[in-house]
Amino acid sequence: MSSFPGLAHVAITVTDLEKSVEWYSRLFDSRPVLDEDEESGTFHHSVFALANGMLFGLHSHHGSTAEGPFDERRVGLDHIAFGCSQEELAQWRDRLDELKIEHSGIKHAGYGSGISFRDVDNIALEFFAPPA
Fold first, then answer.
1. Residue 120 pLDDT
2. What's the pLDDT at 43?
3. What is the mean pLDDT of the chain?
């Protein structure tokens, strides 16, 4: 068996699919490549194609009710990090400023550097670069 495979896609559940599609379209500077009800009929998904074949999906489950905004302190997802280089972090900081998305600014640690920010459902996102 080869080494453990990397992630193929990430899918998150959102409260307002239309609002989230617009927010992520601005962030990714692209539109979804797939926008349809899943064949089981239990949810709708809008999927973005990112670099290196990675897919990022937004799900809206039919008949579901949200129990408040996302909180990484609950069991489940903590955050999603998008990989970049140290040089690209400043560009992403400037892009977030341009989009008027609040963020942490660039924070440095021994294991790498990152910029933390949140989507419209308060889901924690990050641009992350390994140490220089």
1. 95
2. 86
3. 92
Q: Do both 57 and 84 map to the same domain?
A: no
pLDDT digits (tens, 9 = 90+) for 55-95: 999 998 887 766 777 888 887 889 999 999 999 999 999 99
Same domain, 34 and 6: yes
Task: Return the beta strands (E) in 38-105 as ranges.
Answer: 43-49, 55-61, 80-83
CB 118 within 8 A of CB 27: no
User: Does residue 115 fall inside a structural domain?
Assistant: yes
Domain shared by 31 and 86, yes or no: no
Q: Whole-angstrom Cα distance, residue 2 to residue 12?
A: 28
Residue 75: per-residue pLDDT: 76
Distance, CA of 15 to chain centre: 15
CA 94 to chain centre: 18
Beta-strand relationship, 80-83 and 55-61 = unpaired
DSSP one-letter code for 53: G
> 87 and 41, same structural domain?
no
Expressed as residue numbers, the domain containing 50 is 1-63
Domain count, the chain: 2
